[in-house]
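cache lookup: miss for this entity combination. No prior model stored, computing from scratch. Input as submitted by user K.M.:
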Amino acid sequence: MKSIVAKVLVVSIALGVAVFALAGTAGASHVKVDVSVPSEVTVGGPTAVQVRLSSADEGLPVANAAVTLYASESFGQVTSDVELGQVVTDQNGVAVVRFHPLSAGDHQIRVQYVLPGDSEPEVTTASVTLPGITTQLYQSSAGVQIPGLNVWLLIAVVAAVWAILLSVAVRVIAIAHAGSDEAPRAGLAGGR
Amino acid sequence: MTPWRERLERAALAPITGTSRAYYVWVGFLLAVIGWGIYAYSRQLQDGLVVTGMRDRISWGLYITTFVFFIGISHAGTLISAILRVSQARWRTPITRMAEFITLVSLICGALFVIIDLGRPDRVLNVIRYGRWQSPIIWDVLAITTYITASTAYLFLPMIPDLALFRDRLAGRASGWRMRIYNLLSVRWHGTTAQWRLMGAAITTAMILIIPIAVSVHTVVSWIFAMTLREPWNSTIFGAFFVAGAIFSGVAMLIVVMAILRKVYHLEEYITEKHFVYLGYLLAAMSLIMIYGNISEYLTTGYKMSEGTEFQFRQLFLGQFAGFYWFYFLGGLVLPGLLILLPWTRNVWGVVAASVLVVAAMWVERYFIVVSGFRVPLLSYEPSTYAPTWVELSVMAAGFALFALLITLFVKVFPIIAIWEVAEDEESLAIAPAARGFAHGAAPEPAGGGAR
């Protein structure tokens, strides 16, 4: 029994270490990729994702690598990867991509980089969580605000029109009720 | 029952009780055109909007043109019928039902073209899911759905006594499904005092409500254009201009349909030359308003002559769209006015010829408004061109065939003329024979018909 518990414990620790390592860094066989996402991100606010590329063996920075960030976005039943930005790493192997996240929730950011001299891109992912709820971010700064002339006025007009239409429908029901009290009189249907 | 009333009922029942071979040929032809249109549309569904002539620079074409055209002619019925009813124009009674049919049918056909233009019809619900109250598209959807509902009510209410008459007269003679329709839609009508009072109140409410709704519909349709940043659509009179154009094309379409149904169903006793001439006067008045609108619009923008306006004027008056524009202006506004106002062409055929010209010209007007507006470049790129493909032409032809088919089928099921209103009008004339119009040989009475 003790040996089973010990084995489970060892496997759990090994898995935990692996998950922890994978969460912090990701990399191809010869390049180590560190992705840093700010701990506090707000919807619509400026965000900078820092990507650092270094050689896996010696830890030397990889300069002049093209780094492109993508995020998966959905609108109107269409889901697609949206490019957030493309930056070339500096002498320290660092590329900082700045963008404005537009919706709350968990987002997977796809980090694609092409090393100098390479043509095939390599890919890793990072996750970022934005608290709160998604709201309409665009607020028109132009225009003249006239008190009372707004969406609620439109809703009130539409509601009033449909209320009147409903009253017409009620009258049709009343016609049917008035007819049910009367015995059918052949030939009098159309005449007054 | 008087012999006159008997003839009236017989005339109203004739489309239901008898079906000629020509009717089946006509319906078969329309179904064939619709079938071909469905095939063309299936190609569009399969391959996408790339099978049309629309591209990124000119992204509206025949579909939106035809949508605006159908919404325009929807003013034929309800608005005209309501205005004539509100103004107590007595001569209106034999034609209001047809006018109201046209409204409902053209609204159905018009709404279909918006969905067709979408390319992906399943995305129509995105208007509800992602729509914003601030968007003219949402206003358009609201206005058109309200108008369809109100027009249905306005068509249905005055039809109740006639449906009850059909229920009684056709009992045992009509097929089961027809009788079920009459029983259901006649809402237990027996012509009691309470029922007349309730129906009168409902019609009054509906006819007053329908006028602003109808005006709002075409105003909002115009705003789809006028609120888009395109040089030729930067107009403050677009709303009024579109409403005027809608009434203009609506009256013309009503006259054409009236002439066809009068001929086919032998309604000469009820739809007389007087009705054509009176509607012709309305058409002539609207043609003058349209000419005024053209001059007012183009003179003011042309006087300022911005770069985009110059491009638009060149393509409209001298270039690619010149043929369309001058046909519209001379053939669709000036000539119809002359045909109606000159005494020797002021008759049934003259008015019908003028109306056919107006219907064609008003479709053409919508075409060049839509396409030429998109053709004015927004940036310094070469102006694009648009040519409709066989898919668009086929779908459009199917739309017109559907319009004709729905009217044909409506007429086969529902009363073609408002029997009780015509009878009431005749009775009032019998009481006051001096007020009788030239339907029975006297000189025409003034438009409006005087008090009832």
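stored under new cache key. Confidence is low (pLDDT under 50) at residues 435-452 of chain B.
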